[in-house]
Automatic annotation (TrEMBL):
Gene3D superfamilies: Collagenase (Catalytic Domain). Residues 1-25, 188-214, 248-275 are annotated as: Disordered. Residues 265-275 have a biased composition (Basic and acidic residues). It comes from Microbispora cellulosiformans. Pfam families: Peptidase_M43 (PF05572). This is Zinc metalloprotease. The keyword Zinc-finger does not apply. GO terms for biological process: proteolysis. Residues 162-242 form the Peptidase M43 pregnancy-associated plasma-A domain.
Length: 275
């Protein structure tokens, strides 16, 4: 995937677009993501409306570095909330992914559609990647378990960081343990290599010979919520690169052919979006 991203960034720079190399590295460009929250319930079971504002607040704190780490420049603005009462969709939102998203999804590549239903015990969330958008715009979005939203009943995952993690994928970040100890890793330089996901919240963990402890406090690991607190400056750069290539809306009146489109990059990474 990195090869393709590099090619597209070069194309954007050659065509006069604002490539990252032209920016002042000290300035964090603001990206405001419009958000639609789609609450799927089974009768009275499911996310209470009051929790939506709490989840959006946690997203903004996490992506601005409010818990630690870098300010990614990304902020989230709630556009609206939909409600759907559907027992089957609530209990198996991935099994019914197509009809669910076909009915509820809205907006272009820049709009985050956050579907909140109930997932299985093994999975708390699922996201598509930005480079999938061109082939499957109708499936773009993030699905999370309602119990992972701040104040929810999942003891170890009740701070709302499942959404932070999944939206990291939606913005183009890979797991910190991607490719294990191999040098390509997660394609970000300042997250030390990590052989395997972190379970729970160990005092310390170092699974690769390369320098640096495992980034178990990073939002893109699998640690429990109490263990997570940060994105790195390198991840912030990758998010902005991905945004420029795959999600930034075309200027009004621009020739769509002049805008670099996304290539399909379905690969061995297919399941990586599942937390
Ligand atoms: Zn994940």
């Amino acid at each position: 995937m990195s090869a393709d991203l590099g090619r597209r960034l070069q194309a954007a720079e050659a065509s006069g677009g604002a490539g990252p190399a032209r920016r002042d590295p000290g300035a964090v460009e603001r990206i405001t993501v419009p958000v639609w929250v789609h609450i799927v319930r089974d009768g009275a079971l499911g996310l209470p409306d009051a929790a939506v504002a709490r989840q959006i607040a946690v997203l903004n704190t996490a992506y601005s570095g409010g818990y630690g780490g870098a300010d990614t420049g990304v902020r989230f603005e709630l556009e609206g909330v939909t409600h759907t009462d559907n027992r089957a969709w609530f209990r198996d939102p991935l099994g019914f992914e197509e009809p669910l998203k076909e009915k509820l999804r809205t907006g272009g590549p820049e709009t985050l559609n956050l579907f909140i239903a109930q997932m299985s015990r093994l999975v708390l969330g699922y996201s598509t990647y930005p480079y999938w958008y061109k082939d499957d715009p109708g499936l773009d979005g993030v699905v999370i378990d309602w119990r992972s939203v701040p104040g929810g009943p999942l003891r170890d995952f009740a701070r709302g960081f499942t959404a932070v993690h999944e939206i990291g994928h939606w913005l183009g970040l890979l797991h910190t343990f991607e490719n294990g100890c191999a040098s390509s890793g997660d394609a970000v330089d300042d997250t030390p290599a990590e052989a395997r996901p972190t379970n729970g919240c160990p005092p310390r963990k170092d699974t690769c010979p390369a320098p640096g402890d495992d980034p178990m406090h990073n939002f893109m690991d699998y640690s429990q919520d109490r263990c997570m607190r940060e994105f790195t400056p390198g991840q912030a750069v990758r998010i902005r690169q991905m945004w420029d290539v795959y999600r930034r809306p075309a200027p009004q009146g621009a020739d769509p052919e002049a805008t670099p489109g996304a290539l399909a990059e379905r690969s061995d990474d297919e399941s990586a979006g599942k937390r």
